[in-house]
Write the structure tokens for this entry.
Amino acid sequence: MKKILFILSALSIILILPEMVFAASVPEPSGGLDLTNVIKGIASAMWKIFGLVAIVMFVVSGISFLTAQGEPEKLKKAKDSFIWGVAGVVVAILAYSIVAMVSSLF
């Protein structure tokens, strides 16, 4: 299991690196940097990172289901990780919605 988590961690880092490189080449907005653009940029980056983490969590949960081999304890652990993954997605969507509503006020 540790080997799988290591491989998934390495894969996620490899997938994030190109995003960091492309972020360095984005031109500055014509109006300069203001709080709204900074908040939108941070929210966009966090949303991408969250999406990657959510996908990795669901893949790990699926692998746990497949390797449980009918053992009730392992099945419960895999089910719990899936439920917490869904809860994390719901919380992230709510957080993103709150940021979008607050930024639309200004």
